Amino acid sequence: MIKLLIVDDSPLMRRLLVEIFTEAGDFEVEVARSGAEALERLAEVAPDVITLDIHMPGMDGLACLDRIMIERPCPVVMVSSLTADGADETLEAIELGAVDFVAKPRGALSLEIDSVVPALVEKVRSAAGARISRTTRLRERVRATAVLAPRRVPAQPRASVQREPVAAPLPPDGLVLVGCSTGGPPALDALLGALPAAFPWPILVAQHMPASFTGPLARRLDKLCDLAVSEVASTTVLAPGNVYIGRGDADLVVTRRAGALAAMAAPSSPEHFWHPSVDRLVASAMHHVAPERLVGVLMTGMGNDGASAMTELKAQGGATLAESADTAVVWGMPGALVAAGGASIVAPLDRLAAELTALFAL
Question: Which of 208, 212, 279, 284 is catalytic?
Answer without folding.
Answer: 208
